[in-house]
Amino acid sequence: MPSEKLTEGWILALKLYGSTKTVGFSDYKFINGSSPSLALGRERNTFLSREFGFKVSWPNGWMIDNKLNEFYKRQFGFGDKVIMPIVIIPQSLLGGFRPSVTVAMDDSVSVDVKSYIEKNINLSRDALVEIIKTIGVDLVSILQFHYLSPYGAPSEERIFQVQKVALTNNKAYIVTASQIPESELKTNKRFRDDLEKIMTSFSIVRS
Question: Which value, to the nearest 10 degrees, does the dihedral of the CA atoms of residues 6, 97, 85, 122 take?
Fold first, then answer.
């Protein structure tokens, strides 16, 4: 990555990137061998799926919009074998942009994590990538940025995208926070906290 001026927004994006460098595991007892796709009550604002094998939560002010699944699959360049069970978006635009957190899954992986991201993840020339190999799960953290104009405005702003790719038991999970405006990172603490909570809430479920 070329040298970047350490602006406040850039430092905060690096902090969010740093928070993606872990992946959790959850033990969950599914009732009668099944689970709801959306767990309510005790686990409010939580998506939990035995079929897809993961759990993710979001704060109030965010919502699921699964009408956007195919749109984001195309935007990220995922192939037909990749499933995107969930798209989480804020209930209103932020800085003229629509940030999102998506979780995609590929359950037919037969390569190592480095080869997987080289083949399946669109990496820009300037991408910041870290591979963490552990016992049971290999993890990749990715930070990328580009410049984009918000809706109805001629000026451009730096927009960040943060991903973590977790590969375990021949499955790859791709968790992506996209369309993150630098201005919102700098001025909107709740937005920063929400993104970090959603990204770190992702866990692989063991039943």
Answer: -50
Distance from C-alpha of 186 to C-alpha of 13, rounded to nearest angstrom = 9
- Which amino acid is located at 111 in the chain? V
Distance CA 199, CA 202 (A): 6
60-92 confidence digits (pLDDT tens): 999 999 899 999 999 999 988 999 999 999 999
**Tokens describing residue 35:** 């689970």
* 121 neighbors 131 (Cβ within 8 angstroms): no
Nearest alpha carbon to residue 121 among 88, 70, 168, 166: 166
d(CA 5, CA 166): 30
The pLDDT, as a whole number, for residue 29 is 66
> Within 10 A of 99 (CB to CB), how many other CB atoms are there?
23
Residue 170, classed as helix, strand or coil, is coil
Assign 185 to helix, strand or coil: helix
- The residue type found at 147 is Y
| DSSP letters spanning 120-146 | HS---TT-EEEEEE-SS-EEEEEEEEE
Q: How far is CA 27 from CA 51, 61, 180, 181, in A?
A: 15, 27, 31, 35
Locate 205 and state its tokens. Answer: 């479920």
The helix (run of H) or strand (run of E) holding residue 78 is none
List, for the chain, all residue ranges whose pLDDT scores fall below the cut of 50. 1, 32-42
What's the Cα-to-Cα distance from 127 to each of 18, 78, 124, 144, rounded to whole Å? 14, 18, 5, 5
